[in-house]
Structure formats: structure tokens, C-alpha cells
Amino acid sequence: MSTYEDRLKALRAELARRRLDGFVVPLTDEHMSEYVGAYAQRLAWLTGFEGSAGSAVVLPEDAAIFVDGRYTLQVREQVDSRHWQYQSVPDTSIAKWLEANAAAGARIGYDPWLHTRGWVEAARAALAGKGAELVAVETNPIDAVWPDHPAPSDARLIVHPDALAGRSAAEKRQDIAEWLGKAGADATVLSALDSIAWAFNVRGADVDRTPVALAYAIVHADGTADLFVDAAKIGDDVRQHLGNAVRIANRAAFPAALEALAGKTVMVDPERAVAAIFEALAAGGAQIRAERDPTVLPKAIKNPAEIAGHKAAQARDGAALVRFLHWLSIEAPKGGLTELSAAARLRELRDETRLLRDLSFDTISAAGPHAAIPHYRVSEASDLPLRLDEIYLVDSGGQYQDGTTDVTRTIIVGTPSDEMKDRFTRVLKGHIAIATARFPAGTRGSQLDSLARQYLWAAGLDYAHGTGHGVGAFLSVHEGPQRISPAGSSQSGGDEPLRAGMILSNEPGYYKAGEYGIRIENLVLVVDRPVDGQEKPVLGFETLTFAPIDRALIAPGLLNEMERAWLDDYHADVRARIGPLLPEETRQWLDAVTAPIGD
């Protein structure tokens, strides 16, 4: 299996052995996670694609890989076009491609633990139109041909303190029980890893960059719960924390427990629960009701303790980032820095806080043309030097027990071109438009998205990713249901009403393929923003991230008076909040680079 071509051949041979004419390979796990453990990195093993969203289909002669606009360039760098067709989502879909390419009468395999029920229904209907069949596999064929397939993590769970969570696990379970009672239901299934971590006030280390544990849960209307997690991962401290109302069973016992809910009314989230969960419940005779996971909204609406923790984490993380930017300003012009060495230095500075638990995602350390790849991931093979008169983009974040951070800064090493300054300033204007927006309660993220794009649109430009995603509290850096994204985009969630307490990113960008990329990202908190004469509650954003924005890339003439004032006020906040946390030399540098914008 030394090459990706060998791996593709091995999979095709295994499919033939199983009398399958194709197989669908999503990038997820049994919990519909965005970031997955090493054992679930089947798409990367098969194709070489290292992005965080994508899927593939393998037929006897053809194969295709499906990604959205964030990965258009990356997939072409990492996946061999001799063996794979590149497909763009949402312009097409797996179901449409199979309908066009699968042979009449073909048997197309899928793993029911890796797809939603809705996906299965859509794919089955598309195949039925040409007499093809969608076939559930009992075991994943990739696992059968993957030598040294990693085992799931055996890391132990840890207790997330109530002081940081803001509410006890018992209180959260009681809220779920009351929700079930009002709906006349007996139980609900929690399968999303961050939902389980939040509901039980536990964290884990089973997935890189996301502090969650591999587990399932069933919460009952009497407030008790069954937690399915390998017993070796539970220490006495976690058992004591969970208490007698939580019964612990091995993760492998979960399917049988679903079938044992015979005659019960069970709430299941069709977006977060895989098809196999619905099938097991149906096989056991449960009455299934499709409802959104009851933890999703309360998890997204941060309570005062979570907000306070997040602000503390942001200040700590901001100081590490400012120290990095100061170091970069000295070392980058000398030459000798690369994407990898810069990312390593930033990690060192975060580690020096002594409170960093992990990065919140793999740092996007992107020089020159790599900055034009929105979700670029540096490797030893791709590592570029930071060169004079080129842009360097760094998108990074940390996982701290009191909060999750995510921040992007775009830096010019040397002197920018006029075009770079124009594009950067248009992105900045969009960022400010989101930061200063006022909107009535009930407004959705999709309604705000165009505020960030308008200045790029005016120049015939745009970017192929959402403007903002939700962020968890020592949980997933990409958290739903809230987003700021175009309605109907492949990055769903933009139609969720924004509510006070939600945390989102504000990250418009611009990318010129093969040359440079720009993104300015801060995290923002939805807050009440009353205005005189309002006829309904008005909301806005409080900026949470504090780090300098590179003034060398700004064309001041493109900023209006309000935008200049916002920038100067923001930089004054950076000095006030971060300055006292810095060594003297770095503080003096910060004072200089955050001085009021000139003409």
C-alpha cells in the first residue's frame, strides 16, 4: 500500500470480493463529527486529501472526490487527477454523480454508521431510477484493506468543572427530561460527541483538536441516562462526578440498547444521528420521532460562566499571538522562516501559557500562493519559505479549559502591492460591517452574510466560504447551529436565528489563486444592543479577539470615517487588554503597530 494508486486497487479488489460495484467514502465517524480520530481517517488514507470536509465514490473504473469551494485548490494539490475526478459541492452531489455514472443494476455499498438517514434515502432514490441498489455493509471495506489500521483512542475522560460549565450535568439532564416529558417521549439519543461532552460535563482526548470522548448516550424522561463508553476510559473521579443516575455500559453495547427500547417513543436528531441508529431503533420496535438534539441550542447559547471563561482564554491567547506577531516582524524579513517553523513558534508561545490543552485545529500557516487555499494544511512536502513582499496568512487557535479560540491574521512581509492593499481593505471593511451590525431579534446569519461581501462584490470579487461559524466552550471550534453564511450554501446553519450568548467567528476573506490570500478573523459574541425607539429587541456583536490588524496592508483612503474610528478604537482595546500581559519590548512594538491610522 505504498501509493494511493495501490490503495485504490486494493479497495476495488475488496469490493469485487464482496460483490459490490462501488462504495461511498465520507470524511466522518459514527458520530457525524467534522474532525475525527485517526481510525476514521478513511478518506485521507485512500486519496491523500487532508481537508476537514469531503467524500468520495469508488466504482470499478471511475472514482470521484467531492469537496466544496474551500478545498478547490487543496484537492488538486493532494489528490491525483489520473485516478480521481474532482467534483464541486453544491454544484453536484454523490447522489447525482452515482445516478449519472453507476451501471444499471449496480450494487453500491455504504457504511450505515457513517451516513445520515436523509443521505441514504436520497442516494437510494437516485440509484433506483436506473435500477441500481444501495447496499449497507456490515463492516467497512476500507478497514479490511488498511494495513495497521489505527485503533480508536483509549484516552481517559476528564471532568469539566461546574464552575466553568456554569451548570451541573444533573441540571442539564433534568432540562432534557422536562423537554421529553412535554413532548410525551420516553428517551432521546445523543450521538454527537460535543453534545455528550456538554450534557455530562466531561471532556476527552479521543479526537485531535477537539476535547471529546468516543461515546453514545441515551437520556430518559426520568432524568437518568445510559452512557456508552469503554469502561477503561472512566476513572473513579468521572464515576463519582456522573453519579448513580448515569449508568455506564461499554460502547459496543449501544446497538443492542437501541433495540431494547421496544415500544418506547424515542427522539432522534436526523442531522446528527447516523442511519444505523434509526435502523436499530426500528428493528427493536421503538416509535421514532425526528427532533433536533436537545443540547444543541443551550450549548450554543453560552451562559455567564462560559462567557467569562472564554474572555479569559481570549486574553491569554491574544497575548501569545501578539508575541508571535512581534517575533515574526523581526525574523521574517531576515529570511529563513518557513510555514512549518512559524507554526511551531506560535505553538511554543501558546504552550508557554501552561494552560493550553491542545490546538483547536491544525494551524493554517500559509505563505504566498498557499494563502490562497482557505484551509491549507502545511506539511514537510509543501513547506514554503516566507518571502519578502509576499503575504503570510496564519489562522490558528487554542483549546483551553476555559475557552476555545480561533483567530486569523494576514501579514505582509516587506512591501505590499497596491492590489493587495485594495483587497485587504475591502476585506477589512466587510469585517467592520459585521462587527458593527445591529439587527432585530430573529435575524439569521444568512441575512447578515452579504454585509461582509458587499465591498468585494462592488469590485467583482467574492470568497467561497462562509463568513462565520459558531464556536464552542472548550469544545468544537466549529459549532452549530448558528452560522453567518449564504442561504442554501453547502455550509448549513445560516438560517438559524442568532441569539444573545452565541459566539461566532467574523472572517471574510479574498483569495487570488496562485498568488496570495487574505482573511481577517475575530470571534464575536451576540449581545443585546438597544437603540432609541426600537420596536423589538435589537442585537449586535461584541468583539472578543484582540490582536493587531496589519496597517501596512490598509489603503486608508478606502476607509470612511466610521471605519477609521472602529479600527482606532479596536486597536486601543488591543493595547489596553493585551498590553499589560506582554514583556516590555513587545508592548512597545504593540503600541507602535496599533497607533491611529493615518492617511
TrEMBL record:
<keyword id="KW-0378">Hydrolase</keyword>
<comment type="similarity">
    <text>Belongs to the peptidase M24B family.</text>
</comment>
<dbReference type="Pfam" id="PF16188">
    <property type="entry name" value="Peptidase_M24_C"/>
</dbReference>
<keyword id="KW-0031">Aminopeptidase</keyword>
<keyword id="KW-0645">Protease</keyword>
<feature type="domain" description="Peptidase M24">
    <location>
        <begin position="310"/>
        <end position="527"/>
    </location>
</feature>
<dbReference type="Pfam" id="PF00557">
    <property type="entry name" value="Peptidase_M24"/>
</dbReference>
<feature type="domain" description="Peptidase M24 C-terminal">
    <location>
        <begin position="538"/>
        <end position="597"/>
    </location>
</feature>
<protein>
    <submittedName>
        <fullName>Aminopeptidase P family protein</fullName>
    </submittedName>
</protein>
<feature type="domain" description="Creatinase N-terminal">
    <location>
        <begin position="7"/>
        <end position="138"/>
    </location>
</feature>
<dbReference type="InterPro" id="IPR032416">
    <property type="entry name" value="Peptidase_M24_C"/>
</dbReference>
<dbReference type="Pfam" id="PF01321">
    <property type="entry name" value="Creatinase_N"/>
</dbReference>
<dbReference type="Pfam" id="PF16189">
    <property type="entry name" value="Creatinase_N_2"/>
</dbReference>
<dbReference type="GO" id="GO:0004177">
    <property type="term" value="F:aminopeptidase activity"/>
</dbReference>
<dbReference type="InterPro" id="IPR050422">
    <property type="entry name" value="X-Pro_aminopeptidase_P"/>
</dbReference>
<keyword id="KW-0479">Metal-binding</keyword>
<dbReference type="InterPro" id="IPR033740">
    <property type="entry name" value="Pept_M24B"/>
</dbReference>
<dbReference type="InterPro" id="IPR000587">
    <property type="entry name" value="Creatinase_N"/>
</dbReference>
<dbReference type="InterPro" id="IPR000994">
    <property type="entry name" value="Pept_M24"/>
</dbReference>
